[in-house]
Design a protein that fits this description.
The complex is a heterodimer. By secondary structure, chain A is α/β, with parallel strands linked by helices. Helix content of chain A is about 30%, strand content about 25%. Chain A has a single domain, classed as Rossmann fold (3-Layer(aba) Sandwich). The radius of gyration of chain B is 32 Å and the shape is elongated. The chains are: A alpha/beta, B alpha+beta.
């Protein structure tokens, strides 16, 4: 059995203390394999983003362990590795907004992710161009983000997330700003990426129209995670 | 990939206007040091060019450039008799203000001890030296006079026979050279009515005295020409300039003059030091304070602009942190922008200064040392100015990028 892209054990996150204490996540555990696309659903404030940002290593949990690509990275709030360096090498991010750097072209937005990971500029440029072509936005490579449509921007963001061949891609409502057709295209893209790049993908979403693209669906309820059957599992005899 | 350059390219308008403003400020900073150097040059120009070894001035005074100095014209002959003195000449210096072509004109009147000194040491750009005892002058081009022009000063008319360039006094007013007697005539010119009234008053004072009552010819003499009365003899000169014989011991000559109680003697260097420690020293401090203020203002402007640019990039910085960019990448982005802003501002200052400074009314001298020191200052203030932006950037949390 291959190493999971991410493993979360008994994650707990508490904000505030005393009478202002709020438990955002209580003893959540999950495991996502490489090549797997997992959807995470739940109402606003249920703790989805808290789990996602904990896995992104930018929101330290109160307790619990997180292991990414077989490397233990967090034991409660204690970092076991250099988190920023780890993010650089192992994680990819896609957000509701593409969050492209406005003064860089589409190509440069992908290239910068490679260069901060010590890839030589010429090599980074070649790889960035390959990714943009792979995601069908190659012809817009030299445009600034302002000249790209929402869908194109999101594809560039996906290309940036894939740049360093991460084992885990974290997506936070990536289709919220897109119309249904483009939203579906992006969701299908995650499936393609997971299979072809052998990356684990976890997508936080409210969009119930695209649930069929997920291999598994996790639902947050009262700070805990429960697994929900997908359309594929439901249709099984 | 250079993020700083790309961000600047994206915000080109803001960058251009900001650096233009900084450039103008730095030009003034550069100009301040240039004006100071110009002041020193102009203040010491005459002392340097006139070629005297010693300046004999009124006892207890600091010489004609610092204050009023009056010595007897006969001091010239006394000085010549001192062993080691090759030559001595009278020197007169004073400033007048007259109308010229409908505009006020300030002239520093310098008297040359004609015929010994015909102004051969004066660097002429046109014309000749003073060849006649009266009514000829050499004028600096900054006075706006032309060769052959005739100028009325006092009761006499003087012809411009020679022109110089860049010969100005410590106040920046152009120099004009005359014979000593002409320079004194210009200085002590009074209206005829004043002369008549003074003669009449003098006559009455003598007539009222015992001397006048006992010797009536004194009354007649008192009503005559002032120059004919020893007590009202011609005014004295400003100083006497001494040139030493080759190989003469300056200290020995100075010791001799030092024993004369009616005069004070200065070397050329001392005369320059007196000039610089007086008026120029205050100007230096004033200009220095302005420089410090302008440098502070430039620093604050660069800091605020860099801080604003950093605030505009908070999400981008958060994203860079999220994708794992090292602090060096982010610090480099901000620091390079500040340094680029300073460097471009510096080049603008240099370029504008080259165009503007020659058009300033006072001489502005920019030396390589000034350019180098300003470059170092600009590098320093740009670095200091980026600290605020870097401080802000370091406090940005990567999860800021997730905020809506």
């Amino acid at each position: 059995m291959s190493t999971p892209a991410v493993e979360v054990q008994n994650l707990r996150k508490v904000y505030g203390s005393g009478h202002t204490e709020v438990v955002a996540v209580r003893d959540a555990s999950l495991s996502i394999a490489r090549g797997e696309v997992v959807g995470m659903l739940g109402p606003s404030g249920s703790g989805k983003s808290t789990i996602l940002t904990a896995m992104a290593l930018i929101n330290l949990p109160t307790s619990g362990r997180i292991t990414i690509d077989g490397t233990p990275v967090l034991d409660g709030p204690k970092a076991l590795v250099d988190l920023r360096a780890f993010r650089r090498r192992h994680l990819g991010f896609v957000f509701q907004k593409a969050n492209l750097i406005p003064f860089l072209t589409a190509l440069e937005n992908v290239q910068i992710a490679l260069e901060v990971n010590d890839t030589r500029p010429r090599q980074a440029k070649r790889r960035a161009m390959e990714l943009l072509d792979y995601l069908d936005v190659g012809p817009r490579a030299h445009n600034l983000p302002v000249a790209l449509s929402g869908g194109e921007q999101q594809r560039v963001a996906v290309a940036r997330a894939l740049a360093n061949k991460p084992g885990l891609i974290l997506a936070d409502e990536p289709t919220a700003a897109l119309d249904s057709q483009r939203g579906r295209q992006v969701m299908e893209l995650f499936g393609k990426v997971a299979r072809e790049q052998n990356a684990g993908v976890i997508v936080v979403t409210h969009d119930h129209r695209t649930l069929d693209v997920f291999d598994r669906i996790l639902e947050m309820e009262d700070g805990g995670l429960i697994e929900r059957p997908t359309s594929q599992t439901q249709s099984k005899p | 990939m250079n993020l700083a350059v790309r961000d600047i390219r994206h915000n080109a308008g803001r960058f251009i206007f900001t650096t233009l403003g900084i450039g103008l400020l730095l030009m003034v900073v550069l100009g301040m040091s240039g004006i100071y150097r110009g002041l020193i040059y102009e203040a010491t120009l005459l002392v340097d060019r006139i070629g005297a070894d010693l300046w004999i001035v009124q006892g207890g005074t600091r010489g004609p450039f610092a204050e009023m100095s009056r010595v007897s014209a006969s001091l010239e002959d006394r000085a010549r008799a001192v062993p080691g003195v090759a030559s001595a000449r009278r020197f007169v210096s004073h400033t007048i203000q007259r109308e010229h072509r409908g505009k006020p004109l300030r002239i520093v009147v310098e008297g040359l001890s004609w015929p010994e000194d015909r102004g051969a040491w004066i660097p002429l750009i046109a014309g000749r030296g003073i060849e006649r005892a009266h009514f000829e002058m050499i004028a600096d081009a900054s006075l706006g006079m032309t060769l052959g022009e005739r100028i009325e000063l006092g009761k006499d008319v003087y012809e411009v026979v020679g022109l110089t360039r860049g010969l100005v006094g410590s106040s920046g007013d152009g120099l004009a050279f005359f014979t000593v007697s002409d320079a004194m005539a210009i200085q002590f010119d009074v209206p005829g009515e004043t002369v008549r009234l003074e003669r009449e008053a003098r006559r009455e004072r003598v007539a009222a005295s015992d001397l006048g009552r006992m010797q009536p010819e004194f009354i007649e003499r008192a009503a005559g020409l002032s120059s004919g009365i020893p007590a009202f003899a011609k005014p004295q000169v400003s100083s006497v300039l001494v040139t030493l014989s080759p190989g003469a011991d300056m200290d020995a000559v100075r010791t001799t003059f030092g024993n004369w109680p009616d005069i004070t003697v200065y070397s050329t260097q001392q005369q320059k030091d007196l000039l610089l420690s007086g008026m120029v020293d205050k100007a230096k401090r004033q200009l220095g304070l302005f420089r410090v203020l302008l440098i502070l203002i430039s620093t604050i402007i660069i800091a605020l602009i860099i801080y604003t640019l950093t605030l505009d990039k908070v999400r981008d910085i958060a994203l860079l942190k999220l994708i794992g960019a090292r602090n060096g990448v982010i610090i480099g982005l901000i620091l390079q922008q500040a340094l680029l802003m300073g460097a471009v501002g510096y080049l603008i200052a240099w370029g504008l200064g080259r165009f503007a400074f020659p058009r300033f009314p006072r001489l502005v001298i920019i030396e390589v040392a000034d350019l180098v020191s300003l470059a170092v200052i600009v590098a320093g203030i740009s670095t200091a100015a980026s600290v605020l932006g870097i401080w802000k950037a370091m406090r940005v949390e990567p999860n800021t990028v997730l905020a809506a």
